[in-house]
User: What shape does this take?
Amino acid sequence: MSHSHNSTDWDARYREKDRLWSGDPNEALVQYASDLTPGKALDVGCGEGADALWLAEKGWQVTGIDLSSVAISRAKESAAVRNLDVEFQVRDVATVVEDAPGTFDLVTAFFIHSRDDQQRAETLRATAKLVKPGGRVLLVSHAVTPPWAQHRRDDGSSAPKFEKTTKSEIAALGIGDWHIEIAEEYERPVTGPDGEPTTMKDAVVRAHKPNSK
Assistant: This one.
């Protein structure tokens, strides 16, 4: 799928609501990044910017990228309201790798979606390439498909299956020689789009790139 098609899809989805996400940082970010020493961070697929803004409040120098110009404009507004200096850009992770490989102390990627597994794996490999020696990647993915996601498609095609494991995500990142600091499943209570309570299970991977590379 082309970048432009993806962008159009995401812009349309964001325009459905004044705010698509809660505005709060992901719980797993708070839990798994609070102990890290601030440096230069990149949030891949930053959406409306809540995670990037939380990192900035903790002292990180943050760049947030997303395919949706609607999401990025909202993220910029939130940063201005909170007087936080975050660089938000409408960009694909692949173009950042071309310009700035190995430059970030922390790269975060939460719930990277793609209808194409190969495209998603390419995105994750690119994400890992942005981490500098001694830096880290923090990847959080759905370990089970949300019950409501199976009904999302209006065109008759089947909804994407998430169901990532820490093992499959580490393989997709292509980080065989890195130190895996965290590889676990994380459960959290959530409320579905129709108000139904359920428990989501996420796969969390935090890996440290060797200094020698």
User: Anything to note?
Assistant: DSSP finds seven helices and seven strands in the chain.
